[in-house]
Amino acid sequence: MPAADPLVPFVERLRVFVADVRVIVDLRRYFGIGLPSGAVPFTGSRFEDFAGGGEGPEVADTVTVTDLIAVQTVSVIVPVPVALDLLEGRLGARLSDVLRAIPADVDMTDVDAADLAPGSPAQQAWDLLCNQRGFCWVTAGKLLARKRPRLLPVYDRVVRCAVGRRESFWLALHAALRADDRTLHRELTTLRQTAALPESVGVLRGRDVVVWMRHRADHKEPGCVWQ
Predict the structure, then answer these.
(1) CA pair distance 209, 106, nearest whole angstrom
(2) Which residues contact 118 (CB under 8 A, 6 or more apart)?
(3) How far, in Å, CA of 7 to CA of 177, rounded?
(4) How far is Cα 218 from Cα 225, in angstroms, rounded to an integer?
(5) Which partner for 61 in 37, 74, 99, 109 could form a disulfide, CB atoms 3.0-4.6 Å apart?
(6) Is the Cβ–Cβ distance between 29 and 197 less than 8 Å?
(7) Using the 8-state DSSP alphabet, how is residue 172 labeled?
(8) Burial class of residue 189, CB neighbours in 10 A (0-12, 13-18, 19+)
(9) Which spans in the chain are helix H?
(10) Whole-angstrom distance, CA of residue 176 vs CA of residue 183
(11) Kind and range of the H or E element at 219?
């Protein structure tokens, strides 16, 4: 009997969220599309486009003050000493050197797994940030997602709980989006088009919001039913 594909449960969990009947309503609610008078979108709706975004040619390889504000919209704060080092110090220079080796104009589905694997520039950037005092993996991932929104996903404890822990979420998501002739990627593309999301919101971000919105109310740590 052939061994079971370890990717299957991960893809199936993602598709549960993508196929939910409430998914379009959730996406439009999060990004403030068609809201009734007096209602406001989630602050995270500004993560991608605040101050023009973080991946433009003039800022793609540098962490800016606007990037540090943008990550606050998705509920993380960069510790002040690290923020100053990113803006003015050696840490910022080191991160910029690594960011220059990470393409800013490609989608996750269009790169090889090696571009997201241990030793890759993307992983080096993540490791560099995670090694800073008071800088957790959630904050590191969100800052990198601000700088490379098409390539690197937003990922936090709610999403991790919903889809299950993986040794490498980037590699698991990359494989899932490319599986079955990129079926999941096409489904997510259709969702963002149907929901009429802004152009700044890509497939990766749409996937994050879909999962997060469906699971946030049920999430609790420890003890969540999805764990």
Answers:
(1) 20
(2) 168
(3) 11
(4) 8
(5) 99
(6) no
(7) H
(8) middle
(9) 7-18, 23-31, 65-72, 80-88, 90-99, 121-130, 137-147, 157-163, 169-194, 203-215
(10) 9
(11) none
pLDDT, tens digit, 9 for 90 and up, residues 105-152: 999 999 999 999 999 999 999 999 999 999 999 999 999 999 999 999
* CA atoms of 115 and 110, how far apart (whole Å): 10
- In whole angstroms, give the CA distance from residue 140 to residue 113: 20
pLDDT at 3: 43
Q: Using an 8 Å Cβ cutoff, are 184 and 173 in contact?
A: no
Question: What tokens appear for 179 in the block?
Answer: 């599986």
Residue type for position 17: F
Residue 221 φ/ψ, nearest 5 degrees: -135, 120
List the structure tokens of 191: 């969702």
How far, CA to CA in Å, does 205 sit from each of 31, 43, 74? Answer: 11, 14, 12
d(CA 124, CA 107): 19
Residue 135 identity: F
Give the pair of three-digit tokens for residue 74.
Answer: 């998705």
For the record, the structure tokens of 180 come out as: 């079955």
pLDDT of residue 5: 59
Tokens of 147: 């700088």
Give, to the nearest 10 degrees, the angle between helix 90-99 and helix 121-130. Answer: 160
